[in-house]
Amino acid sequence: MTDQTEGAINAMKKFALAAVAAALTLTASLSAEIRGKYLETRNAEIYASHCFANSEAGIKGDLAVMAWSIESGEAAGVDLQGLSVVAVVKASSTIGNPFLSPLPTKTMLIFDEKATPEQRVALEAFARRSAGELISEVVKTEIAPISLDAHGNLHAKQATLVAGDLVKVSTRAIEASDSLCHMDNIYYQPMVELEHAMAAHALQQSVKYDSVGVNMNEYRRSSVYLGAFAAHDKAVSDD
To answer: What's the burial of 37, exposed, middle or buried (CB within 10 Å: 0-12/13-18/19+)?
Structure first.
């Protein structure tokens, strides 16, 4: 075997090893991915004309609900498949208003009753990393049965979120009759990063958050985003 041939074989071996290493890295990355369904709503229109949205700024939009239903994945090495977590956020001002910060906020976290203490810690880490500064101070935690049901088709935008007797949201697609002045468009973007997001209409949304004196019960508001999320363990662990 010539030196040239041996060098070519060694180069091929190195390339093959690098390809295997890359494949293993990709597999590990995919296995650490957290995926699931998401719903958020707030006490303000997200789909409205600029004039109407501006009329609510500083008055509405300071209360938000974010719900994650995890279909697969883990955080900080803890399996979260089949679990949910809901954040109820009371902000200082309208969330998404570019002219005034909503911070600081006070958050109530609602953990799935199926979660173990270890899983609740991981769920909190996941929610905090997903929502960023919107979940700054957690002033109350609750444990409750949580259901985020898209009724088999997320794209139909007919979803129901129930978190014990603390949160209930039911949605449908936005219709022409929901228009407030026939110049409606997306005004506020989702509060978290999503793989896919769709605006929807809340038929009803109720929130009980006694720690900050909130007892909201609203009907007929285009205030919802439904979507799918994908995150990686390294982005949500506490390490």
So the answer is: buried
Q: Are the C-beta atoms of residues 207 and 221 closer than 8 Å to each other?
A: no
Residues 214 and 142: their CA atoms lie apart, in Å, by 15
Q: Which two tokens stand for residue 177?
A: 């009759």
Please write the tens of the pLDDT for every residue from 77-117: 899 999 999 999 999 999 999 899 999 999 999 999 999 99
pTM for this entry? 0.83
Q: What is the dihedral of CA 89, 39, 217, 44, to 10 degrees?
A: 70
Instruction: Tell me the helix, strand and coil percentages in the chain, rounded to 5.
Output: 30, 40, 30
CB-CB contact of 37 with 148 (8 Å): yes
